Amino acid sequence: MADEPIFLLGVGAQKCGTSWLYEQLAAHPDIMMSPIKELHYWDRRFHPDFFKPRDTQTILRRLLKQHGDRIIAEQEFERVAMDCGEDYYLAFFRSRLRPNHRVLGEISPSYSILTADEFRYIRNIVPWRSKAVFLMRDPVERIWSQCKMQAKKATGRGGEGDAYALFGKSIDRRKYVERTGYSATVRNLMASFGAEDTFFGFYETLFDETEVARLAAFLGFESFDFDTEANPNKSADLQRPGKDEWNGVREAFAEIYDFVFAEFGDKVPAAWRPA
Q1: Disulfide engineering: 269 pairs with which of 72, 155, 204, 261, CB 3.0-4.6 Å?
Q2: What's the whole-model pTM score?
Q3: 78 in a domain, yes or no?
Q4: Looking at residue 15, which CATH number applies to its domain?
Q5: In the prediction, which pLDDT does 72 show?
């Protein structure tokens, strides 16, 4: 039916503006985004080798100790309940869906590693028409941003995070390489969602009014009043790694660059081209 809501699956990629996109969509009165930005349901469901399983019992004991009988009202309790199956995942959304909601959904950047068959499974399970959003960023810039984030997290846990050391080893680390495998993700989305139901965007142009307007049309809105100045990735920056090391990582992803330029042509931001 035409008046049924659209289920939006934000697929990634990490460090490509998904937090900004989530915040802007979630603030819209006619859009219901999961109050937990990254549910990580489908990545854990299909790829337990890539993502550490949750210690469900330990989490439930902690929540019960913290919240007592109010445990059922906690969002984290709902996320743990999803480990029991898709019915709980769907209930998480159904319980929040209101008549005015034209779009509902979630964004988990790690879904970029899902296969075409896994995306098809999701589309078959979800009872609403589904669409996907996939954002990309210059591969080396994306990896450098991820390295800085991981180093910051390590420092926050009391360790010594070294973004430069992480960058030097990035092309040998699965969590960096697979999250930058845009060619596989694009092919899988095209095979499962198709061009009509997939929004492909770029971090470098995501905050432009023209791109916001394109996204609005994709989701069936006349326009979006997004705060394009609220890019959460704007922050004090470390100096880039040396040119040789930077170009070495770029060369390792030459196939990704070639694929994206061949697939998207002049839509690829100028910042992707070598200096």
Answers
A1: 204
A2: 0.87
A3: yes
A4: 3.40.50.300
A5: 64
